[in-house]
Amino acid sequence: MRASAIVATGLALLLGSASPMTRGCGYDGMAVDLTTAHPASLSVALAIHDAYQAKLLTKPIALQGGFGMRRAQIMLEKLRVALAPIAMGERFSLLLIEPGLWAHFDGTGAELRVTLHVAAPAADERVVITGEGVLLALVQGKLGADQALQAGLIQMQATLVQRERLTANWSQAFPPYSVVAR
């Protein structure tokens, strides 16, 4: 019994002393503070909220813990597959604003890889900020990347050249949605 109390105390100290940038996301039961997640996350969150209210996007059912993390993992894998043929040599971090989950995409090796639950990137790294409902609409073909960018549902933070390349990759992977074409 004493050993478990020591282990619990040790874990509490480790978690409590962790840097805010490496703490868990909403799927870990942690509260998400959009203002510290990324400076652009609040405006993206508001745009997504407005799109949900206007019924332009379908709001995903809130899932807690491992269920939510698994859905996010599946969604980010679908994103990876869609971007893989065109994003070789690219690297960027992605923030899912609802859970405050950071993922890192790295196409500098033989294939595009995604790593979930990573620390927030440095200020000078390429960042994509969006939400689960936006990714769902993109991978289902119900929204094009250009439409999402214009509506503020996705924001890309990078140098001008890097942002143009990211935008071109996403636009190619997720072409404009057309009611007639579907």
TrEMBL record:
Organism: Aquipseudomonas campi
Name under which the protein is recorded: Uncharacterized protein
The organism's place on the tree of life at top rank: Bacteria
